[in-house]
Design a protein that fits this description.
Blueprint: E1 13-21, E2 27-31, E3 34-38, E4 46-54, E5 59-66, H1 79-83, H2 94-111, E6 135-143, E7 146-152, E8 159-161, H3 170-185, E9 200-207, E10 214-220, H4 228-238, E11 242-249, E12 261-267, E13 270-275, E14 278-283, H5 292-306, E15 313-317, H6 323-328, E16 334-339, H7 342-354, E17 360-364, H8 367-376, E18 383-386, H9 395-404, E19 408-413, H10 416-428, E20 431-439, E21 449-456
Parallel strand pairs: 3-5, 10-11, 15-16, 15-18, 16-17, 18-19
Antiparallel strand pairs: 1-2, 1-4, 2-3, 4-5, 6-7, 6-9, 7-8, 9-10, 11-12, 13-14, 19-21, 20-21
The structure holds S-adenosylmethionine (SAM).
The site of S-adenosylmethionine (SAM) has 18 residues, from helix 6 and strand 16.
């Protein structure tokens, strides 16, 4: 076997023109066809770069001098945002971010799903694409001997202290600042993940977009949190919107942020919010879309795609606390929801009752198992809505869906790659993929939500 020629070497300086962006938002510049991935580099830009790593098929480089500037470059960029992973696309103007996401989705459908003819509609964006997040999960670490809150430097667990998180609601930023000052005052020890010592690991803040209610979650390594009553009292004094303070205990040496045990230190154990006119209770561990106004656009798109009729029976699989099922319940005869986390199912039932929705039932269990049971009981759906986690649908689940044979399937996804893989299986199993709509719930980042519409091919 001949050894592959690599035209650059580590520490070499080369000139490149940026031709494209990777799905992670890195610029791609080529030397004799060999791609170098470069941070903070945009298509059309000419630059001199330093090669940091030269692998067999691609390498990494960093810009030394930019000789020309893309028309899509934002004039002012923040060094902190470049150093951390908070907002990897913040240097690209928003219109170009939306076009980038549409193109990435179309490429993925072609490459992974072998579905080049499926129309991918222009990404639906936000009017004001900053400070949109209703939830923050902020690590707490010691930096230069002081307890700090911030964000991890890219590809590391080194904390970069930050006060303006850019994509979070500003009240959340202020809340984090106050909580940081209060826990410092009471000498709470920050977590050290190398030694697995210290106590406070993360500060999580959730805020109801419409209600303004705030929940603070203090994630600790130990059960004991000294002075928690004084800490709670001072948090509420400084941030009166706080209606709930929870201690979440995570004793394990892990990157998973939350542990299993919650204790309510102050107020309620939930906050309330609204989506498409219905109210929801959200607990510390529940899944809830982080961009409320765009979640409404996402769910409304799913409802519009489905074109429900009043006789329709609908299944909402991976239903969480019932947000999609309850948003569409008014349009249909009956909706069945299934979700694996029993607490979320309990929330979904409560949410149905508090919104006087009487035609929605929820079952706890794995979608694949519950579907098997429903198929054997003769329960069918005219329309199936699925909204799985990033890993997409289980192949066994897809087999049960093909048996149940709903007329339409509306697939909501946060991962173009697994969506493309699963759409291929449906397309091979008698479904026509009509269209895919990207909705931008995560401006300034490379993530995007998608709604795909499929209809059963009768013959
Ligand atoms: C992307 S969230 C969507 C939740 C909800 N549809 C919403 O919009 O708020 C995915 C949900 O799938 C649930 N889940 C994960 N694996 C599951 C499985 N095998 N069966 C049923 N639900 C599952 C998760 O607990 C989570 O609530």
């Amino acid at each position: 076997m001949t050894k592959k020629h690599i035209p650059v070497a580590k520490n070499q300086t080369v000139d490149v023109v940026i031709e494209d962006l990777t799905h992670e938002g890195l610029g791609v510049g080529k030397v004799d066809g060999y791609p170098l991935f470069i941070e903070n580099a945009l298509p059309t830009e000419k630059m001199t770069v330093l090669v940091l790593k030269a692998g067999r098929t691609f390498g990494y480089a960093k810009c030394l001098t930019r000789h020309s500037t893309s028309k899509d470059r934002v004039p002012e960029t923040s060094d902190v945002l470049i150093r951390t992973g908070i907002a990897p696309l913040h240097h690209l103007v928003y219109e170009a971010q939306l076009a980038f996401k549409q193109k990435q989705v179309a490429n993925t459908l072609t490459r992974i799903g072998k579905l080049p003819d499926v129309p991918v509609l222009p990404t639906i964006g936000m009017e004001n694409p900053v400070a949109y997040r209703n939830k923050a999960q902020i690590p707490v670490r010691k930096v230069n001997g002081i307890l700090e809150t911030g964000f991890f430097r890219k590809n590391s667990h080194d904390l970069v202290p930050i006060t303006d998180f850019f994509i979070q609601n500003k009240t959340i930023d202020t809340t984090i600042h106050h909580v940081k000052e209060i826990v410092k005052k009471y000498q709470v020890k920050p977590y050290d993940e190398t030694e697995h010592t210290g106590n406070l690991r993360h500060i999580i803040v959730r805020r109801g977009h419409y209600s303004g209610e705030i929940m603070v979650v203090l994630v600790t390594r130990k059960e004991k949190l000294f002075n928690h009553d004084k800490i709670s009292r001072e948090i509420v004094e400084r941030v009166p919107e706080v209606v709930s303070i929870i201690q979440n205990i995570n004793p394990r040496q892990t990157n998973v942020i939350m542990g299993k045990e919650n204790r309510t230190l102050y107020g309620k154990d939930v906050i309330e919010d609204m989506l498409l006119g219905k109210t929801y209770q959200i607990s510390a561990n529940s899944f809830y879309q982080v961009n409320t106004s765009q979640a409404e656009v996402l769910y409304q798109t799913a409802i519009d795609f489905a074109e429900f009729t009043p006789d329709d029976i609908v299944v909402d699989a991976y239903c969480g606390i019932g947000t999609i099922a309850l948003s569409l319940a008014d349009y249909v005869k009956k909706v069945y929801g299934v979700e694996v986390i029993p607490e979320a199912v309990a929330d979904a039932r409560k949410n149905a009752a508090r919104n006087q929705v009487t035609n929605a039932v929820f079952e706890a269990g794995k979608a694949e198992t519950v579907f098997d049971k429903w198929v054997s009981e003769g329960i069918t759906a005219d329309v199936l809505v699925v909204d799985p986690p990033r890993k997409g649908l289980d192949a066994g689940f897809i087999a049960h869906v093909l048996e149940m044979a709903p007329k339409k399937i509306v697939y909501i996804s946060c991962n173009p790659a697994t969506l493309a893989r699963d759409l291929r299986l449906f397309a091979d199993g008698a479904y026509h993929v009509a269209k895919v709509q990207p909705v931008d719930l995560f401006p300034q980042t490379t993530h995007v939500e998608l709604v795909a519409l499929m209809s059963r091919v009768e013959d």
